[in-house]
Amino acid sequence: MTNKSYLTSQNGAPIADDQNSLSAGKRGPLLLQDWQLIEKLAHFNRERIPERVVHAKGTGAYGTFTLTKDLSDYTIADHFNGVGKQTETFIRFSTVGGEMGSADAERDPRGFGLRFYTANGNHDVVGNNTPTFFLRDGIKFPDFIHTQKRNPKTNLKDPQAMWDFWAENPEAMHQVTILMSDRGIPANYRQMHGYGSHTFSLWNAKGERFWVKFHFKSQQGIVNLTNEQADKLKGIDPDSSQRDLVLAITDKNFPKWTVNVQIMPEADANTYHINPFDLTKVWPHSDYPLIEIGELELNRLPENYFAEVEQAALSPSNLVPGIGVSPDKMLQARLFAYADAHRYRVGTNYNQLPVNCPHATQANHHQRGGAMAGTACPYHGSQTGGDASPNYGPNTTPEALQESSQFAEPPLRLDGEADRYSRYNQDDYTQAGNLYRIFGEDEKQRLVATICGSLSQVTLDVQQKMVVHFTKADADYGDRISKALGL
After folding, report:
1. Domain 58-134+186-359: which topology?
2. Which 8-state DSSP code applies to residue 224?
3. Which residues of the chain are modeled with pLDDT < 70?
4. Active-site residue numbers?
5. Is 436 annotated as a binding residue?
6. In this predicted structure, what is the pLDDT of residue 419?
7. pTM beyond cutoff 0.90
8. Does a cis peptide bond (omega within 30 degrees of 0) precede residue 394?
9. Fold for the domain defined by 136-168+429-487
10. Residues 299, 250: contact at Cβ < 8 Å?
11. In terms of DSSP H, where are the helices of 328-455?
12. Is 229 left (phi over 0), alpha (psi -120 to 50) or beta?
């Protein structure tokens, strides 16, 4: 029986009746031998994998990146060499703090995770819709996220924990100002910018290294929601951003972003007046202007949300020759944390799933075994455990895998003593104050109202500490917050 229209069990056996359980008589109890019932219920209990601790709710799409400026002077990365070259892409947008069932229109950063399926492997730029973040050191990240999640006693969101943490970590001031401003609630995923946020590195054929930041500028324009608009939209359609992207691509109104980079010569980092690897800071465009390099277009929706979006496993550790990391402490922590989260959620061979495996090149390695071993990547067949080739290297077999020394990254010079460095002459306030000062009067009023709507719910000591931080960023900023709180 080969007709694919027949309903079958998981082992391929035809099902005669899928509507009635096997029972002892018409009114009798069910029988344990009803393997068909057991299979359906057991699978149903296991249909969900653990949701992401952060970025749990999101949506994805495929597209193309078209290079419009050759970057061979800066990098050997294949997708950044050759004007006109097109590279297949996948992107996952998300909110950060909410659960799978949360509303899309929350005041929250938005994840902007982009994958390039390059000829030399997958390159992921896993960033946000903001160029900065709340922290500069990944060791604080679990504590920070605990303050954004539910209180372990009440299971309610906890303004006290959130502001208490920020009061003790003034490095968050720049990102807090962004989040609480009019920029804090993007109307949808199409009408917002994206950023790699971290500092990455490029290296060219001469072995020269450059530091780089990625910027994705929406060609749809920027639209944000007020608190009132967002509250109304959350009640009308909690899936508003998901729906917007699906409808746009279905209607062939393909979203586009202009791709830009900022590039800093390696030596500049030693003398630049800010730490270029500090995720709480931006590089002023007056010092390192945006360089337009291409266009990102989203033009295809996934066929299966669970398989292609829920199990998408983007990670900043997915790098290719010509692209490297930097001493950015948050980035260094994420290199481990993201891939490890995917191993936990999806399984050790998560990279063999269609959305995660390389599309434009073959993955060849000595890793074997584990859950899903032998799963066939639809682009290149099985990668792990699907054949009897050696699972060690080096080896003397005819099919021995060879190292590609031509892609070696140039050495990175390091200097300093190993220590746990605390705050050292870090300026946590200037860029936050600069941002505040460019806001118009109406936006300043909305910013203060948004901050105080939440900050008013916390203890007096935390309020007073936050007023000190706001004042150090800008005297008017702190004065308005203080007056609005009645301090």
Report:
1. Catalase HpII,  Chain A, domain 1 (2.40.180)
2. B
3. 1-4, 374-376, 379-388, 423-425
4. 55, 128
5. no
6. 86
7. yes
8. yes
9. Hemocyanin, N-terminal domain (1.20.1370)
10. no
11. 329-345, 430-438, 441-455
12. alpha
